[in-house]
Amino acid sequence: MTAQPDTTKHERRTPAPPPVTLIGMPKFPKNAKKELANEQLRSNLRHATTTIRNKRARVVQELPHWEDLRLAGEAIKNRTLRHLDSYLLQLEQTLTANGAIVHWAADAAEANQIVIDITRSKGADEVVKVKSMATQEIDLNEALEEAGIAAWETDLAELIVQLGHDRPSHILVPAIHRNRSEVREIFLEEMGRYGTPPPEGLTDDPAMLAGAARVHLRNKFLRAKVAVSGANFAIAETGTLVVVESEGNGRMCLTLPETLISIVGIEKTLPTFADLEVFLQLLPRSSTAERMNPYTSMWSGVREGDGPQEVHVVLLDNGRTNVLADEVGRQALRCIRCSACLNICPVYERVGGHAYGSVYPGPIGAILTPQLRGIGSEVDQSLPYASSLCGACFEVCPVRINIPEVLVHLRNKVVESHGVTAEGLVMKGGSWVMAKGRNLALVQKGSKLAGRVWPGDVIGPIPIPGPAAGWTDARDLPKPPTQTFRDWWTKEHQQPEQTGESAS
Amino acid sequence: MSSKEAMLGRIRSALTDVTPMAPADDVAVEWTYGQRPPGASDDMLGLFVERVEDYKAVVSWVVPDEVPVRIANALADHDVTSAVVPAGAPAAWHEAVAAAGIAVVTDDPVLSHAELDATGGVVTASRVGIAETGTIVLDHAADQGRRALSLVPDVHVCVIGSDQVVSDVPEAVVRLQTSIDERLPLTWISGPSATSDIELSRVEGVHGPRILHVLLVNV
Amino acid sequence: MSAPTGTVALFATCINDTLFPETPKAVVRLLERLGCRVDFPLQQTCCGQMFTNTGYFKEALPSVRNYVDTFEGYDYVVGPSGSCIGSVRDQHPMLAQRLGDHALQERVDAIVAKTYDLSEFLVDVLGVTDVGAYFPHTVTYHPTCHSVRVTKVGDRPYQLMKAVRGLTLLELPDADQCCGFGGTFSVKNSDVSVAMATDKMRNVLDTGAEYVVTGDNSCLMNIGGLLSREKAGVKPIHLAQILAQTEADYAATVEAEAVAR
Predict the structure, then answer these.
(1) Same domain (yes/no): A144, A270
(2) Mean pLDDT over residues A288-309, rounded?
(3) By CA distance, what is A436's nearest residue in C?
């Protein structure tokens, strides 16, 4: 299955993304191996993640009540999720009263069709887009392309990704895997094909590259009739949407076109405007590591004489209600897409976002994607294991999502979804061994016996779920001691018959 | 069944473990809203200036009488030859800008995107300033104009009274409640537009005004 | 400091019992020297985290039950592993709760309350940071992820090491970064694991220390496995073994080595 449009119908309007084959996408370790081999990628990622996480630590340290803010953020989101039906109905009511048109989309196809229909009804054949994870999740750009509508990404990084026929690899900095000379190449090669070309003598100076994007996009902003955005927050009490951004491309999209369509995941709801005081402290410091991001826009439906006079809001499910139904996993819906967990994650830092096979990479992706999509495919089954469970993600999460807890919970779901597996037999054998001290002592007597108990490779008498080569290719194993501690203790302290333990 | 009904049904069946009660009574939120945070600076205005400048914006202290002329000077300093001044701004602002030889553009009748794009600067008042984060919030009342005015021109001269500056986000949110109740749009501005999308190297000025000049009025 | 009145049960952990017996031996020596009555109930096995963390909750339950059965009668349970103690504290209650076995839940909660990592037991229960140890070497300390983020031992290991005579502690760059062990992660995602371990090793080598110290032998096995393969010469050692060694022990070791030569 591929997401490539049927190009026989018409010429493509926008740069084609790389073909994606979700079914049959290799599992995480295989993707990771490939990405690890890319030295340039690893160096770009290391520089970027190190810079941003150090900066985050500095601005977080400025707030003595940071932990209280995290607790408040968690509690507000929990309250909202526990009464999501009430808050969504309230949001629909206030938005409607503010002159907005509210749509409900159960899945990606429905959401995409709503955008296509509205755009066509305006006689438009293009839209300008504010960076939005929700629209990436539903692959809106390709759906629009198939409908003959060009979707222009206007965030600088998204523009780099789009022009580069690429996919985002980070929630906040989608082109984190590209360095400046690669960006220059992409602009020189592609920009002119899709609008205003870059200026003569374009260098790889970031300021000059950003200037080229400004000029390239300005005309698109001024002429666009329809804009598409997501939203960081949707306030139920007042019918207000909030978009947090840096470059001003968001403000352009939210202000200049006559029609605005915002795709809002249902979990973005917040009860009151006052709740923003918590989230506008948590989000910028956790995401861009700034005290405040340059621009935040808030709008409550239609404002006569100011901005779009037709405002649509699409409330998107697309698997979120599945997540909500899982009592442990639902905490993932608290996520405010800050990407602090990506920047701190030692696994993400080394493999980048593409290895996760999802628009949501890193630790949050490893718990969100398998819940949104289900654990049917190989890649989705491998994602909960794409972590050493070091716990750094939980520590930095501004809404206290216990990512390691959910990872382990999802691993259990993956295990329970399988019948008998080789790994399962290893674990069953291990379970018997660890049920009684006497069983462990028996197995410790010799690796031959251990080999019989565990039908797989063993480190001494400890089982390895997988080939030992995974360990021994790069690392030595400790030489097993001549005497276990148990034997030593028994000799030193007591007679074996005094243990008083019965064999199982 | 509509998607709305289907989604609400799925939410309700996902939440069968939740005891039915009023949302506001459920899940205690241990947070006192609207408070000045612990450790907030005593020198609020000093901090405001420092933090706004930290974003590479220009901040100038002015006395009330000099506001109009300082607006004109600020525009002239940045080589602005035409500037939008919102219709609801004080008449003295219009006059001072015009007196400096800068073409005053009003948004009445409404400017086209192209006309706005051809205008070099914009002057606005503002609603709230936030010291801790160096933020200025516009609620686009008559003295600030519609949102596009303070977005498309390249130089934004923004006037804020010292009495409009609060300590941090919570106090700002309290002050902005009336604007939200009137369903005014809000734009929170922290420095000029910026990007860090290329190697996380910060570039000031992408799509919004590349120059933000704040006139802090000592009142 | 005062020795506790009750008996301290040593939870050696399966990996130490089997592969690193010198560590629990050191714990026994150390605690007895500090006046504790130490017992090692032979019924003990494992915290079960290799099952739990791989998703095998059912398979972890016998370990949970056995832990409760083994240690219930003791006043204190002490283990030389931030990770295994963290698993007992964090995962045993979760597993019991999921099972819906209230009786087991209560027993688990009771035992969790008296389960300590070695560094916590020394500093918090015995109230001692200077344990009379002597270790005339340069060391660098890797604070293992679970000891810091699950068990939350804080700066206790540093307090203990600073009081060791002769010891020079060299700061480890990027100390808070995971070494890449992660239990079954080290084989399921071995490429990423090795990449992480390699960076950790480089940081260890950059300190120029003679020893790399942790409170978890599993992580130490990972870092040490790479150091050994690279013939780097830096020796891995568990914190307990440093704390257990007195000046007299050291002199005896030196003498024994001289005799052997």
Answers:
(1) yes
(2) 97
(3) C43
Q: What is the pLDDT of residue A331?
A: 98
Please check whether residues A118 and A233 belong to one and the same domain: yes
In chain C the domains, ranked by start, together with CATH numbers, are: 7-125 (no CATH), 138-249 (3.40.50.11810)
Which candidate from B30, B185, B200 shows the least CB-CB separation from A52?
B200
Structural domains in chain A (count) = 4
Residues A14-29 have a mean pLDDT of 79
Distance from CA of C201 to the nearest CA of A (A): 11
Would you call A478 an interface residue with chain C, using a CB distance cutoff of 8 Å? yes
Contact flag A391-C150 (C-beta cutoff 8 Å): yes
Closest Cα of chain A to C198: distance in Å? 9
CA B83 – CA B98 distance, rounded (Å) = 9
Which residue, C45, C106, C119, C109, is CA-closest to C78? C119
The pTM score is 0.95
| Alpha-helix residue ranges (DSSP H) falling in chain B | 3-14, 44-54, 67-77, 91-99, 113-117, 169-181
Please report the pLDDT score of residue A113 as a whole number.
98
Q: Which of A28, A388, A464 to mutate to test the interface with C (most CBs of C within 10 A)?
A: A388
Closest CA to C183 of C6, C5, C15, C1: C15
List the domain range (segments joined by +) for residue B51: 41-217
pLDDT of residue A471: 84
Residue A350 falls within a domain, yes or no? yes
pLDDT winner (highest mean) among A9-18, A21-30, A231-240, C1-10? A231-240
The pLDDT score that the predictor gives to residue A223 is 96
In this structure, the answer to whether residues A98 and A239 fall within a common structural domain is yes
- Binned at pLDDT 50, 70 and 90, residue B1 comes out as confident
The alpha carbon torsion through C28, C34, C37, C42 (nearest 10 deg) reads -10
CA–CA dist A229, A152 (Å, integer): 12
Residue A265 burial (CB count, 10 A): 25
- Residue C88: pLDDT above 60? yes
Residues 275-334 on A with a CB inside 8 Å of C are none
- For A172, name the nearest residue in chain B, comparing CA atoms only: B197
Interchain touch A–C (≥3 Cβ pairs closer than 8 Å): yes
Quick: pLDDT tens for A168-212: 999 888 998 899 999 999 999 999 999 999 999 999 999 999 999
Looking at the structure, do residues A168 and A134 belong to the same domain, yes or no? no
**Closest Cβ–Cβ partner in B151, B181, B200 for A248:** B151
**Mind giving me the DSSP string for B51-79?**
HHHHTT-EEEEE-GGGHHHHHHHHHHHTT
Domain enclosing residue A173, as ranges: 155-224
